[in-house]
């Protein structure tokens, strides 16, 4: 099996968005909850090998070097971040700090430099209590041949809103590990609320939680993430 991360799905300018890459790899693991650990920046526009592992997971390799690994996960660390209304999430997004300063402005998920129909343009604004909120309306450009939104895009939505619950604009971080459960995928045009929450930090590591809610308030997906501070 192979996998190619197109440059469209970048986070930093020269590597894949962590949530999107994690979700793409998680599709190869037969488990409701999957943990993906990113070992190095996922390269773009090259063929990567997806190799089965003895633990029921898979490994992502580039020229024999480990890029990431995905294994069946544990839902113990997963909890739903309390939601706000769609109107409150939209109001928070208008104050998104990434509109003023962003370490990765071309990020597929949260980059303000990406045009509608190219990036997801999730703009998580801080609520002042350790949470972020924004609205995600899936568009046709993130659908497969059947017109459905693949789970990997829910994984992508579960990425950046957690990171922005920390002061990432002044302390750049990248995703190190993501444990996620995707219960459903939203329809095109659905107005989903995405919540992030800061859980703690120590040294170069930061821990966050994220939840995607459907229009009816049901949980679409939830995640627990470990972030690693990097040089600006």
TrEMBL record:
Domain of life: Bacteria
Designated name of the protein: Thioesterase family protein
């Amino acid at each position: 099996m192979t996998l190619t991360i197109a440059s469209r799905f970048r986070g930093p300018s020269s590597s894949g968005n962590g949530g999107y890459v994690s979700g793409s790899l998680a599709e190869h693991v037969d488990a409701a909850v999957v943990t993906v650990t990113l070992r190095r920046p996922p390269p773009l526009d090259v063929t990567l090998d997806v190799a089965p592992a003895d633990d029921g997971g898979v490994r992502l390799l580039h020229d024999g070097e480990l890029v990431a690994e995905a294994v069946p996960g544990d839902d113990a660390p997963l909890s739903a971040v309390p939601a706000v209304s769609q109107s409150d999430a939209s109001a928070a997004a208008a104050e998104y700090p990434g509109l003023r300063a962003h370490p990765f402005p071309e990020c597929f998920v949260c980059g303000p430099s990406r045009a509608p129909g190219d990036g997801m343009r999730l703009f998580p604004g801080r609520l002042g209590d350790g949470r972020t909120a924004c609205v995600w309306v899936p568009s046709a450009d993130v659908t497969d041949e059947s017109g459905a939104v693949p789970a990997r895009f829910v994984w992508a939505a579960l990425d950046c809103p957690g990171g922005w619950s920390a002061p990432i604009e002044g302390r750049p971080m990248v995703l190190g590990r993501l444990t996620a459960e995707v219960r459903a995928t939203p329809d095109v045009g659905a107005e989903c609320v995405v919540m992030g929450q800061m859980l703690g930090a120590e040294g170069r590591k930061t821990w966050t939680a994220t939840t995607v809610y459907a229009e009816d308030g049901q949980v679409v997906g939830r995640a627990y993430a470990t972030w690693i501070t990097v040089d600006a």
